[in-house]
Design brief:
About 60% of the residues lie in helices and about 0% in strands. It contains seven helices and no strands.
């Protein structure tokens, strides 16, 4: 399911048909998004057993996510580069605080993932796995637990961090990305 979401993301990032500085920024932003999608896909495939796990590859992919999120992600969406021909909805400007909070949250999660990858073991171990009782968003059958979303990412397993990053990416795309033809 996660791989399918990543492939959908990558397919949606077709090159922009814009000119000038805005077009260059849009193309750079799309390239950045493709790099993030490829990095996330690599890690997902390692955890799913569809790709051989290798600690240096995990570290490189996690570093890519960390470098391209947070303030770097916010900087890629300045006013004047939103709306057609970009896939970024102009609503980003109307909801700028929400967009930036989401980008910063993804950044904190990606930083924690990169820190864990820095000392990655030679094989995926139990400490890296999400575990059966760890909900992806702090939810339960009774709803979200108070304060669950504010948990310290440094204490979360790498697989859980990845799932939270992908959740945030999906949330951002559903609110702030439009299909461009």
């Amino acid at each position: 399911m996660l791989v399918a979401a990543l492939l959908t993301l990558a397919a949606a990032l077709a090159p922009a048909a814009a000119g000038g500085a805005a077009g260059t920024l849009i193309e750079a932003r799309q390239a950045s998004m493709k790099e993030m999608a490829a990095a996330a896909k690599a890690i997902v495939e390692m955890f799913d057993g569809k790709r051989a796990y290798d600690a240096p590859g995990f570290k490189a992919a996690a570093k890519t996510l960390s470098a391209r999120t947070g303030p770097a992600l916010i900087a890629e969406f300045p006013a004047g580069t939103l709306g057609a021909p970009s896939g970024a909805k102009p609503e980003i400007d109307q909801a700028r605080p929400e967009f930036e909070a989401l980008a910063r949250h993804i950044g904190r999660l990606a930083e924690a993932l990169a820190a864990k990858a820095e000392n990655a073991p030679p094989a995926i171990n139990r400490d890296m796995r999400m575990g059966a009782m760890l909900p992806m968003d702090g939810g339960s059958l009774l709803g979200k637990r108070p304060g669950a979303a504010q948990a310290d990412p440094a204490g979360m397993p790498a697989e859980h961090l990845l799932h939270l990053i992908l959740q945030d990416c999906s949330s951002c795309h559903s609110k702030f990305r439009q299909k461009v033809e």
